[in-house]
Design brief:
This protein is mostly beta strands. Strands 1, 2, 3, 4, 5, 6, 7, 8 and 9 form a nine-stranded mixed beta sheet that branches. Strand 2 and strand 3 form a beta hairpin. The longest helix has 16 residues. The protein starts with a helix and ends with a strand.
């Protein structure tokens, strides 16, 4: 009887100490602090078996300076990640990369449980200032302040890409 009791306590303590994998495969959708939509998709890497980000999309509004001071750049970007580059470690992942040569994103995602991501994101873009007749001669620097975001797990059948999303290919 005493041996059975000792085993039960040991297993109970092991269950408390062992970390659980909070994230799960699927799409997480939500908004940034300024109300723009954002999503990230978690997948299992075919080679390593580790969970990683496979794609994402963000709607943004970024105030501009320079030649376009007083204006803002608004839009949507959809993007894919190269397999094995955005691996989820200790329930979080950091993203610091160019989505295209003129668009940089920095984000921190933390999986608080199996249905929720909290974090922050910041975007920087350099855009050509259009001219009515002729080629552009100036560029604008547009940057959204780093802001909080909150995302919830969404079954894949309910996670379409927002209309107007431009799919950018990573170089």
């Amino acid at each position: 009887m005493r041996k059975v009791f000792a085993v039960t306590i040991t297993l109970g303590l092991a269950g408390v100490v062992m970390p659980a994998h909070a994230q799960r495969v699927g799409t997480y959708r939500g908004t940034t602090a300024d109300g723009n939509q954002v999503y990230f998709t978690v997948a299992r890497d075919a080679d390593s078996g580790k969970l990683e980000l496979s794609s994402g999309g963000i709607q943004f509004t970024s105030p501009c300076t320079g030649a376009a001071a007083g204006t803002s750049l608004s839009g949507n970007w959809g993007f894919g990640f190269t397999a094995g580059t955005e691996v989820i470690t200790k329930e979080q992942v950091t993203i610091k990369q160019y989505l295209v040569s003129s668009f940089y994103m920095s984000a921190l995602l933390h999986f608080t449980d199996d249905k929720t991501i909290s974090g922050s994101v910041g975007l920087i873009s350099a855009e050509l200032v259009p001219v009515v007749n002729g080629p552009p001669k100036q560029a604008a620097y547009c940057s959204s302040a780093r802001q909080l975001m909150s995302l919830k797990y969404t079954p894949s059948a309910q996670a379409p890409v927002p209309g107007g999303t431009v799919i950018g290919k990573r170089r």
